[in-house]
Design goal:
Layout lengths: L9 H8 L10 H12 L2 H15 L3 H25 L6 H8 L2 H35 L23 H15 L2 H26 L15 H16 L4 H4 L7 H30 L10 H8 L3 H35 L18 H17 L6 H25 L14 H15 L3 H25 L5
Length: about 450
């Protein structure tokens, strides 16, 4: 039983972070762009309309604020850990050092599911926007090649989703230096597009559309908050980049907190303008931001929004694939997954094989599986990770009170406890089918841990 909770020492982790296995190329600005690239995408361009129409109404802004608060509290915890122990793996690594190997494996296994499903779900959204853009030029994908089987459209494979995942995989396998340049350019484009929407849309806001403000009551706001939480996932991907940051102690807290603050502000402004431009009952569409501009006759800017949406969703894909590879890379290096997943390419300095395996699995999910139900797994997986990292900060303060910390969470243990409670509250608001699927995935993880990972663990040696 004792071996299930064996821990990696903080000294060992810090020493490991100083080994130059991966190339250090990222600055604070790059990390902020990475965070914005991960967070602003499907949430702002797709989820805003659906949640307003079905759950929150104009009170969508309150749902975003609640989710933002939960994420901000978790972000402080991430910032303390990532600046203290700057190593790949994010919450998996932090859990290994505080709560032990079994918990670490399960949260790592949980993160693998979270990122794989997120990649596939976001690629499906990208495919929808891309097909809409092509249709504007009179180009139409055959139905058989534009949707997954089971989506109700007679599809055989969602080919655009598969292609974009392979392109992202090819880019990331070549190195982070090239990937960060492309990500930074695309982030600037999508921020410009969002600002264009705000400037254009503010003149068409009708305050009457904000009445009734909360048509579905407080329960609808909470349900909306649990759903739009999907919009925030990804800022934790900044923590997975710790081993590739030039000055991790300074830059990681800046990257995590700055990206989350910028994204939360933009989400609040866009949701307020969106529900002010169009009655919330009419926003249940796949492209609510473009639809709102078309609704008020701004068709030219609506076209630009589609381009911005494609760009924005592409950056989300890039960061999600990157984060998934870094988590499985860390687990492999610790012996909990096969060693080949942590092998670094001699020329590109990337986990080359791991990147392509991730790409193939995500492409298969996006191409052949309808992800309507599975997408909820992303939320519950992220909330579970946020819960554990909040608890881990309290544990680390107790077990290593004198450890040098570049960034410290204020008011410990109060803020981490509030973070834990909020995350659990949002988890309880998710559908029962999500919990069932999550439990099944955890059971599969337990089987893998006891049959392979436990005896191959580096700590077992």
């Amino acid at each position: 039983m004792r071996s299930l909770f064996r821990k990696k020492s903080i000294t060992q982790l810090i020493h490991q972070s100083q080994q130059r296995t991966l190339e250090r190329t990222l600055s604070a600005i790059d990390l902020t762009m990475l965070g914005i690239g991960a967070v602003i995408g499907t949430g702002i361009f797709v989820l805003t309309g659906v949640v307003a129409a079905e759950s929150a109404g104009p009170a969508l802004i309150i749902s975003f604020i609640l989710s933002g608060i939960a994420c901000a509290l978790a972000a402080f915890c991430y910032a303390e850990f990532a600046s203290t122990v700057p190593i790949s793996g994010s919450v998996y690594t932090y859990t290994y050092a505080t709560l032990g190997e079994l918990f670490a494996f399960l949260i790592g296994w949980d993160l693998i599911l979270e990122y794989l499903i997120a990649i596939a779900a976001v690629a499906t959204g990208w495919s929808g926007y891309f097909q809409t853009l092509l249709s504007g030029f009179g180009i139409h994908f055959p139905k058989e090649l534009s949707s997954a089987p089971g989506a109700g459209e007679g599809g055989i494979i969602n080919l655009p989703a598969v292609i974009i995942i392979f392109l992202i995989t090819a880019l990331l396998s070549r190195g982070m230096k090239e990937s960060k340049r492309i990500n930074n350019i695309m982030v600037v484009i999508k921020l410009a597009v969002i600002v264009a929407f705000i400037i254009a849309g503010i003149f068409y806001v009708k305050p009457d559309n904000w009445t009734p403000f909360a048509p579905f009551g407080f329960e609808g706001i909470i349900t909306g908050a649990a759903t739009v939480f999907f919009a925030y996932i990804g800022f934790d991907a900044v923590a997975t980049a710790a081993e590739e940051v030039k000055k991790p102690q300074r830059d990681i807290p800046i990257g995590i907190i700055a990206s989350l603050a910028i994204c939360t502000a933009l989400y609040m402004i866009v949701s307020l303008i969106l529900t002010g431009m169009v009655p919330y009952t009419q926003l249940n569409v796949a492209d609510p931001v473009s639809f709102a501009l078309q609704f008020v006759g701004q068709n030219t800017i609506a076209g630009l929004i589609s381009v911005g949406a494609i760009t924005g969703i592409t950056t989300v894909l890039l960061v999600m694939v990157y984060a998934q590879v870094r988590v499985s890379f860390s687990m492999s290096r610790d012996g909990l997954l096969p060693k080949k997943l942590s092998k670094v390419h001699p020329k590109f300095k990337t986990p080359y094989l791991n990147t392509w395996i991730t790409g193939f699995i995500a492409a298969a999910l996006a191409g052949f599986i309808d992800l309507t139900t599975l997408a909820h797994l992303v939320n519950i997986g992220t909330l579970a990770a946020f819960t554990l990292v909040s608890i881990a900060v309290i544990v680390l303060r107790k077990t290593h009170p004198t450890l040098k910390r570049a960034f410290k969470v204020p008011f410990v243990p109060v803020l981490p406890l509030i973070s834990t409670i909020l995350c659990i509250l949002l988890m309880t608001s998710l559908p029962a089918v999500t919990w069932k699927a999550f439990i099944i995935w955890i059971v599969i993880g337990l089987i893998i841990y006891f049959t392979y990972s436990r005896k191959h663990s580096q700590l077992n040696k």
